[in-house]
UniProtKB/TrEMBL annotation, chain A:
Keywords: PQQ biosynthesis
Pathway(s): Cofactor biosynthesis; pyrroloquinoline quinone biosynthesis
Molecular function GO terms recorded: quinone binding
Pfam families, sorted: PqqD
Organism: Yoonia sediminilitoris
Protein name: Pyrroloquinoline quinone biosynthesis protein D
TrEMBL record, chain B:
Pathway per the UniProt entry: Cofactor biosynthesis; pyrroloquinoline quinone biosynthesis
Molecular function GO terms recorded: 4 iron, 4 sulfur cluster binding; cyclase activity; iron ion binding; oxidoreductase activity; S-adenosyl-L-methionine binding
The protein, known as: PqqA peptide cyclase
Binding locations of [4Fe-4S] cluster: C32, C36, C39
InterPro entries, per database record: 4Fe4S-binding_SPASM_dom (IPR023885), Aldolase_TIM (IPR013785), Elp3/MiaA/NifB-like_rSAM (IPR006638), MoaA_NifB_PqqE_Fe-S-bd_CS (IPR000385), PQQ_synth_PqqE_bac (IPR011843), PqqE-like (IPR017200), Radical_SAM_PqqE_MftC-like (IPR050377), rSAM (IPR007197)
Amino acid sequence: MTRMLTSDAVPTLPRGVRLHWDRVREKWVLLAPERAVALDQIGHAILSEVDGAASFEAITFALAEKYGAPREQIAEDAGEFLRGLMNRRFLEVC
Amino acid sequence: MDGATPQDWRAEGKARGIPAPIAMLAELTHRCPLSCPYCSNPVELARKSLELDTTDWVRAFQQAADLGVLQLHMSGGEPASRRDLIALVTAARDAGLYTNLITSGIGLTEKRLHELDAAGLDHIQLSLQGTDAAMADRIGGYKGGFDRKMKVASWIKDIGFPLTLNTVLHRQNLHQLPDAIDMAVEMDARRIEVAIVQFHGWALGNRSSLMPTKEQAAEASRIVADARTRLKGTLVLDYVPADYHSDYPKPCMGGWGTTGLNIAPDGEVLPCHAAQTIKSLTFDNVRDKDLADIWYRGAAFNAYRGDSWMQEPCRSCDRKKKDFGGCRCQAMALAGDPAATDPVCVKSPFHAEMQTRANQFAADDGAELHYRSQPLA
């Protein structure tokens, strides 16, 4: 069931993992089973594109457009970030 | 009351460098159908008649969210023994908390699990006393418990709750660790907590029957390391090693009064679940005061914050920011002084004696299990 993060793979936050605005610390966090991961702006920007419909490729295009950065660089950075979440079971791909 | 608001307490705490807590353990009750001999509840259990009622808990959850708590762990005892469990989960989600149920599974029916699903429960942590009925029912002191738990696990899987399997291991069941890891994969658990028994609560009186051998402790570390590589991306392993056989102590609570807090069934607010063993501490009650007031200004929370309370060898040690001198409750239990270095540390004058005793406990093959009792009505 473990899939690779290929360009056509669709990343999705599984049940029990969600973005949350931490109103006390005034920052975004990713809430997951027994973990709360503080997100920086980049992490939040990437996860904001993860909607369970967009492919990894579509996500990198959207980010490149939005932030005016080279797509290859975005793909590398976003890929590393998302694979890290997959290893912790905070993200699935289908 | 001096008219201060939670915002004032937070500003005052921030100025003193005190972070807001991330996690709260709500011990809804000390009642439990099981009687595990390593139960982390205090030996003096809170009686049923003194338990907080629904309204008290709902208010505490709201105050916790206002204080900055993100993760709520509903535990016990057995939290399913509370008849208002569904209402409590609903209230916790309404407060904006990520809600985790820590349960043996006993007391959960398929219907109740569907109700918990509808109430918004985020995650379930299911305890495992052994990987077969003979072991699990003997350790839990509850006949039929294992079969019931397997049934509950199948309902959890059908509903699709994210699941963590939590297994406490000791000399009598450590050989079942590989089976426990396999079971977690079969149940579609995302995580397993592999905790070698820590000697607090009822476990302290059961050291001779539960203490793992040094070889068992080392073998467990090897099995966990191997499984982490083999199951990367499938199962996350959290590991609590056997600290009597370690050279450095655990970073208790991630630093006293920095990360988490605990509410006992009767409303006492504790810096950690074993803090009541430190008799010099006094605890505030959530019936009387706001949680923010207790967190930032309570005597028990301030007792071991920072490092000004530390003695040598901790005070001048470069590890003090990593492990905070270890566990205060263990320093109390083994060195007789809650401000002493945790005897697990090689630098503690009690370390050699503790390791000698650990090996004696581990060699006591005839030792019997002493089960935990039930709270009074």
